[in-house]
Amino acid sequence: MMIKKVTLRNFRGIAKGEIDLEPLTILVGPNNSGKTTILEALLLAHG
Q1: Average pLDDT, 10 consecutive residues per value, the chain (47 residues)
Q2: Residue 40: which H helix or E strand, with range?
Q3: How far apart are CA 11 and CA 23, in angstroms?
Q4: The whole model's pTM is what?
Q5: Shortest CA distance to 41 belongs to which of 24, 29, 23, 27?
Q6: Beta bridge partners of 17
Q7: How far is residue 28 from each of residues 31, 38, 41, 47, measured CA to CA in Å?
């Protein structure tokens, strides 16, 4: 199963956000921009 989209609402520091995922998605950004939060949301959803 491949996750194609991540939608977050009121999760940790992200009030609202949506990311389309490809077979290879690289998260790049400055410190405190939410990269780890997105990964934690994926881990929580996947179990």
Answers
A1: 93 95 96 95 90
A2: helix 35-46
A3: 24
A4: 0.81
A5: 27
A6: 8
A7: 10, 12, 16, 24
d(CA 47, CA 26): 21
Nearest Cα to Cα of residue 20 among 2, 1, 46: 2
> Which helix (H) or strand (E) is 5 found in, with range?
strand 5-11
3-state secondary structure of 39: helix
What residues pair up with 8 in beta bridges, in sequence order? Answer: 17
pLDDT at residue 32, rounded to an integer:
94
- Asked if residue 18 lies in contact with residue 4, where contact means CB atoms within 8 angstroms, the answer is no
Give φ, ψ of 16 to 5 degrees.
-160, 130
